[in-house]
Design the sequence.
């Protein structure tokens, strides 16, 4: 989870994960009250990026039977 390091995580860590081929990354943006979902790493970047807000349900790519509500993560 990120509360003070969102910008650093987005700028530094997310590209590292993309270059490493991590298929999906969730950045928990506590100050923004949202979850950023990064998917489909291609050429060191994520081709698909979306933002989930309170009230939404998320399903990880690698665990299609799991459904998580954003409110459970954001607190």
Sequence:
């Amino acid at each position: 989870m990120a509360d003070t390091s969102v910008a650093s995580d987005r700028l530094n860590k997310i590209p590292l994960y993309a270059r490493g081929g991590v298929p999906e990354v969730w950045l928990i943006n506590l100050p923004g009250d949202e979850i950023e979902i990064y998917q489909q790493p291609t050429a060191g970047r994520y081709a698909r990026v979306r933002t989930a807000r309170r009230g939404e349900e998320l399903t990880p790519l690698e665990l299609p039977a799991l459904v998580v509500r954003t409110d459970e993560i954001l607190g």
Q: What stands out?
A: The first helix runs from residue 6 to 19. The CA atoms of residues 4 and 74 lie 15 Å apart. The chain has one domain: 6-74. Residues 6-74 form one domain.
